[in-house]
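Annex B. Sample input.
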Amino acid sequence: ALDVEDPYVREFCLEIAAMDDETIRPLLKRIKTWVENAVIRKIIAHRESTIDFQDIIQNDRIVIVSTPVESTDIKKLVTLGVLRNLWSAIQQRANEQEGEPDPYFVVCDEFDEIASENLDIESMLARARSMRLSVTLASQYPSQLEESTRKAMLNNCDTLLSFSVNDVD
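Annex B, continued. Sample output.
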C-alpha cells in the first residue's frame, strides 16, 4: 500500500506501478530531465506561487523569465505558468478597475519554442487590446507555429516587423 494521502496522486502512483518497463521507461526519461534540473526542481517543489501577479500588474513591475534549460517541454511549462497567471491578473484588473488602466506589456522571444496548445494564445491575442495588454511575440520562423496561432497573430497584430527576410515563409 502506498503511503500517499491525496487519492488522485495515489491512483496515479498505482497506475504507474502497474506499468511494464517498456511503457514506463519513456515516462521516466521525461521526468528525469525535470528532476535533474535544479531550477525546475525549485519550481515544482512549491505548491503555491510566491509571485503575486496582481501586485506586479497594479504596480507596473517588470518580470523577466529566463528558462536556462534545453528541454522544450520545461520551457513550455514555465511559460504556461507565467502567462496564464499574468493573463488572469490582467483579466481581474479589467473587471475590477474603473476607467482605463495603464497599458501592460508582454514580450515573448523565441515564441515558437514556448508556445503550447494549453496556452490559448489565440484567446489572449483576441482580447488583449481591450484589456490594455500589449503582446509582442518574436519568432525566427513563424511557419513553425501552429496554424491557429499564426492566424491569431496576423488577425490581431497592429504592427509586423521583419528583418532580413530571405524566404516567403
